[in-house]
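User: Can you write out an input/output pair for a complex, sequences first and structure second?

Assistant: Here is one pair. Inputs:
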Amino acid sequence: GNQEIFDKLKNAIVNQDINGCPVITQEALDAGITAFDIINEALAPGMKVVGDNFEAATIYLPQIMMSAKAMKAAMEILEPILAEEKGDDEGVGMAVTFVQEGDIHDIGHRLVTTMLGANGFEILDLGTDIPNEDVVEAIAKNKGKKMLLVGSALMTTSMLGQKDVVRLLEEENLRDSVKIMFGGAPVTDAWIAECGADGTAENAAEAARVALELM
Ligand code: HCB
């Protein structure tokens, strides 16, 4: 059944199987599984295991890079399909996505960005290692549109910038022009409250749900 193929794909991520990952992804699609489910039930959980293994020091950076490559190879197949699956529920609003300055971790950011795109958001992806000034500029430029700011931070150091960007938006009288969702492994509900942001999410599927709720 589906669970078998999800497990196989999850293992391909965990075992850094760069060649196998796209092959199994195609197999899953051929079996009629949606790109959305492939990401949420196999790829994202696989990367979660990789992260946990790294924390437990059972793997090191080179292995992580290879798992990230395997993930990317699968996403290259899935991204065009997600664009089709999204249908025509357009007009949800614009999602301005970015990773804080000093932080180049882009796997979760990409997943969340992809998921929001698949859920009808118009995407403005600023990228990784983005200074808060650039974020504020992007919001200022798009003032008047229905907007959601979607920030990621994977390090306790870069996370501090999330609070600063909310302040900056307040100073520029832009805070009311945008809803704000922050995430990334170190982000907690308490931190969201301290920042004055509007929400957070544990994973990409939840991020899409929270994002739609906030709009
Ligand atoms: Co990196 N790294 N890393 N790393 N890395 C972390 C983040 C540590 C926690 C590992 C550790 O030491 N325990 C740590 C940070 C410690 C801290 O907090 N102070 C760390 C460090 C220190 C570093 C370096 C400094 C190198 C080093 O270890 N000495 C260096 C920093 C470079 C820099 O940014 N300046 C570095 C480099 C790397 C790579 C290059 C090897 C690689 C990144 C590859 C890439 O992104 N292209 C990497 C990785 C992969 C990790 C871990 C293992 C996994 C991160 C990941 O991709 N997770 C991570 C350990 C961990 O997080 N447990 C480790 C999988 C994704 C799917 O999860 O949490 O990113 P996610 O996103 C989720 C979720 O949070 C949510 O949805 C996503 C999808 O499910 N979400 C949002 C994300 N953003 C959201 C926004 C929203 O609005 C809502 C939800």
